[in-house]
Amino acid sequence: MGHDALGTLDSMLIAQISDTHIFCDESNHASASQRARCLSRCISDINLQQPDVVIFTGDTVQHGTPEEYNHLRRLLAPLKPSLYLVPGNRDNKPEMRAAFKDQPYIPQEGPFLHYTIDDYPIRLIALDSTEPEERKGVFCSERQEWLEKALKEKPDSPTILFIHHPPFDVEDHYTSGYRYPDQAIALTKLVSRHTQITQLLCGHVHCLFRCDWAGTNATTMPSIAVDVRRHMDKIQSQQQPAYMLHRLTSESTLVSEIRVIE
Ligand SMILES: [Fe+2]
């Protein structure tokens, strides 16, 4: 924690990365080496910025194979801050669990990769929206029950929720990024009953959007993989990866910026 020149308390800095879509080291895909380079460049800059934590909102690899996770682990090795992952539709949960079994926050059993982190000025809750062989987000009653229970445990703790899939419509291309509209509506109602949630952070759509959602703010972020990034390339060189920095203010709001790597 520290005070800047204006006396504002900056209690936490959070970096968010998403949708790196890493291939295996031996891949001959045209974008394989570029995607690896994008992640490495972001990691170098994150280490300079020294955030308290890094949140990784899924689609970490392209096909979910052990070889891709091995490559991902090697690329992530230089990262200094603590990293918290949630799966995306491109991830394979058993392989992801195996690759990150040294990370105690990742549950090694059960159908979901959800968890809560209570070690920081703001509480972190990861909600797993993925199902095997399903591209869209799933917010079933079991997931809702887990989230409701987690939120009831600490109703007075400001909380950031992070999910791979946005549970709202973003634009025509990603309308209904969730499988069942009634589940998305139920999740929205659930979150709106728990006012300690100050922000929802998502990936999946590969571009930046911000909206009011369930009585809080929601953002999606550009993909780290620049070849599948959308919209930003109209204004930024396609060679420049970008990630998000979210600064927690003393009012428990997040001030967010896109950090473009020159
Ligand atoms: Fe993705």
Structural account:
This protein is α/β, with parallel strands linked by helices. The protein has one domain: 4-Layer Sandwich (Purple Acid Phosphatase, chain A, domain 2). It has five helices and 13 strands. Helix 2 packs across helix 3. The longest helix has 18 residues. The site of fe (ii) ion (FE2) has 8 residues, from loops.
Briefly say what this structure is.
By secondary structure, this protein is α/β, with parallel strands linked by helices. The chain has helices at residues 32-49, 66-76, 93-99, 141-153, 181-192; strands at 2-3, 9-10, 12-17, 53-56, 82-85, 115-117, 123-127, 159-163, 197-202, 209-213, 216-220, 242-248, 254-260.
Notable features of this structure?
262 residues; 5 helices; binds fe (ii) ion; alpha/beta; Purple Acid Phosphatase, chain A, domain 2; 13 strands; 6-stranded mixed beta sheet; 5-stranded mixed beta sheet
